[in-house]
Design a protein that fits this description.
Layout: H1 3-9, H2 52-64, E1 70-75, E2 86-93, E3 96-103, E4 114-116, H3 133-138, H4 140-147, H5 160-181, H6 186-195, E5 202-208, E6 211-221, E7 241-248, E8 261-266, H7 290-321, H8 323-326, E9 331-332, E10 339-346, E11 349-356, E12 367-376, E13 382-384, H9 399-428
Antiparallel strand pairs: 1-2, 2-3, 3-4, 5-6, 6-7, 7-8, 9-10, 10-11, 11-12, 12-13
Helix pairs in contact: 7-9
Length: about 425
């Protein structure tokens, strides 16, 4: 049977493009079947309601902080208290989270909270003028105390907790830097002297019972606003790509120190545009320092990010080409163009085709998943095919040919899928 004859009797859109219920071209009309994860911190799971003044402070902090803060357990200090008045705050730092307990008093909600730090930071004493003798003589500690967020606390100002948390985080960064500067490790002293002037770098000590002390650097890469690379981008927090570098602490200088452990890190939201797991890191040569390693890495990374942004346009053109044979998509991702769904009919058999389009498109082909509209398992959910990516494909084809080749593949595959659904049904009964 030739191709034209096949199209008359095999998969087709049940309606013309003009009669479809949703339009990929109409802004706001699409609903992404797989929306990106929420960027807002999870709401606190409370066993009791926070005091109104305390709740206002916490809600303002979560809504206005540029940091992706999270809230852990929320509890009441008094068993007979009407309101909860304390909670665990997870503060992002150096590509991890530190846990601080924020302790209010529901009986006196206008009083500023106490902040309890974890045992491993028992020598972290911010806002207390107990610096070295020189600092005390010059009054630097007293000056800092007068200027702290606690010195002019106003419980009716919901922004005060935000100011306090950010101030403490800045002081914690200085505390960690000072700890590392005091180490007797020539290599780390050199790395700090050559790299910490770079904006946005964070550094911290890592201690664990089963390994020796280590120092972790979190180095932001690319002087590019990633949030502005994609039109109508939904990200709330600023997206960044970091190089995580972990050095072992050495008490004596080694002429040929081993290479540190390195990896790229980004938020999960960025994967809708670009996956750092796909980046091959350059080799860290013997005797190399971070200042030597970063330029080559950033040059390669910038090229790949530019290609990822261009891939959004290629994916968009692919989705826009679907209506020529499948009709307009029922659903589509209008921002990153990673997913689309079309409704197809073959005789009396009706099914959905879900397109999952990789960030490496067109180098990598879309993954197809078929979903029957007429066959259901014992739980009452539709029967799906396994993911399909073994159909004919070439990144050198133009977009209309890609769509045409997929259509031709589904001409035969829909028969196999219908048989799969019929064979599966008796097993569920």
């Amino acid at each position: 049977m030739n191709r034209e004859a096949k199209r008359d009797t095999t998969p087709r859109s049940p309606s013309s493009p003009s009669s479809s219920t949703t339009s990929f071209d109409s802004p706001g009309s699409e609903r992404d079947p797989h929306p990106p994860p929420s960027l807002s911190p999870p709401a606190p799971a409370m066993s009791a309601v926070l005091s109104p003044l305390i709740a206002a402070q916490l809600n303002y902090l979560l809504a206005h902080s540029p940091l992706p803060l999270k809230v852990g357990p929320v509890w009441a200090g008094s068993k007979n208290g009407r309101y909860a008045d304390r909670f665990t705050l997870l503060v992002p730092f150096c590509l991890d989270y530190i846990k601080w307990d924020v302790i209010y008093n529901a009986g006196y909600p206008s009083v500023p909270p106490d902040i309890v730090f974890p045992p491993e930071d028992d020598d972290f004493h911010p806002l207390i003028p107990v610096g070295d003798v020189k600092d005390e003589k010059e009054g630097e500690g007293d000056v800092h105390l007068r200027k702290s967020s606690l010195s002019d606390w106003n419980s009716k100002d919901p922004s005060r907790l935000l100011a306090l948390v950010h101030e403490l985080r800045d002081l914690y960064m200085r505390y960690q830097k000072k700890r590392i500067e005091e180490l007797d490790d020539a290599r780390l002293k050199f790395e700090i002297s050559t790299i910490l002037s770079r904006e946005g770098i964070e550094v911290c000590m890592i201690s664990s019972p089963d390994r020796s002390e280590e120092v972790k650097f979190a180095v932001p890469l690319l002087d590019i606003d990633l949030n502005k690379l994609v039109l109508a981008c939904p990200w709330r927090h600023q997206q960044k790509i970091y190089l995580q570098v972990v050095f072992p602490v050495r008490r004596s200088y080694s002429s040929a120190p081993s290479a540190p452990r390195i990896k790229l890190v980004s938020s999960s939201e960025l994967r809708s545009l670009f996956s750092v797991e796909d980046v091959k890191l350059p080799t860290w040569l013997d005797g190399m320092c971070m200042a030597e390693y970063l330029p080559n890495l950033e040059e390669n990374l910038k090229t790949q990010v530019v290609e990822a942004v261009a891939s959004v346009g290629a994916r968009r053109r692919f989705i826009e080409a679907l209506p020529s044979l499948f009709g307009r998509p029922l659903e589509a991702d209008p921002v990153f163009c990673r997913r689309a769904t079309v409704l197809v009919v073959s005789g009396v058999f009706t099914f959905l085709v879900h397109f999952s389009i990789p960030t490496q498109f067109p180098k990598q082909q879309p993954i197809l998943t078929l979903q029957s509209s007429q066959h259901f398992n014992s739980q009452g959910t539709p029967i799906f095919s396994p993911p399909i990516n073994d159909y004919p494909w070439s990144p050198r084809w133009d977009v209309p040919e890609m769509v045409e080749r997929i259509f031709d593949f589904l001409v035969d595959e829909c028969l196999n899928f219908k048989k799969y659904c019929n064979d599966t049904m008796p097993q569920q009964q």
